[in-house]
Write a structure and sequence with these properties.
Helix 1 runs antiparallel to helix 3 (42-64), helix 1 runs antiparallel to helix 5 (110-136) and helix 4 (72-98) packs across helix 5. The chain is mainly alpha-helical. It has 5 helices and no strands. 78% of the residues lie in helices and 0% in strands. The chain has helices spanning 2-26, 30-34, 42-64, 72-98, 110-136.
Length: 137
């Protein structure tokens, strides 16, 4: 049912969020995420990132039931696509707009490419964890 699918998505979002959060910590990106709430602390940035990860995971839970999960290639492919979608929406559009950097919308430099790697890892971890839970029933 939809409720259990959303819960699986939230758990997948937490798992993917931790992996992506570690990547962002290594790349020193967390203070910028914290600036979404006017606080450049890496800890605050990680908290903001995890809230976003949970929401995006729950959103996947809504659509995840419609994605055929009978083979791992489809599951991983869905994760790559979902990660890229959120990279474009989040890193390339929403984040620059929310930070008042309108001139940076859809601009791609080294930091955005590093962010893409994290978004793809997030998406794949999310979909794999989601499928593992769904397989267990």
């Amino acid at each position: 049912n939809l409720q259990s699918s959303v819960i699986r998505g939230v758990i997948g979002g937490i798992a993917g969020g931790v992996v992506f959060g570690i990547w962002m910590a290594i790349q020193n990106m967390l203070p910028m995420v914290g600036m979404l709430v006017q606080n450049d602390s890496a800890v605050v940035g990680f908290g903001v990132h995890m809230v976003i990860s949970i929401i995006i995971g729950a959103t996947y839970g809504v659509v995840g039931t419609r994605i055929p999960a009978n083979n791992w290639g489809i599951v991983v492919g869905a994760g790559v696509v979902y990660g890229i979608i959120w990279w474009v929406l989040g890193a390339l559009v929403l984040m620059p707009l929310m930070m008042g950097m309108n001139e940076m919308v859809l601009q791609i430099g080294d930091m955005q490419w590093m962010s893409l790697i994290g978004h793809i890892a997030f998406g794949v971890v999310l979909t794999v964890v989601y499928k593992l839970q769904a397989s267990r029933g």
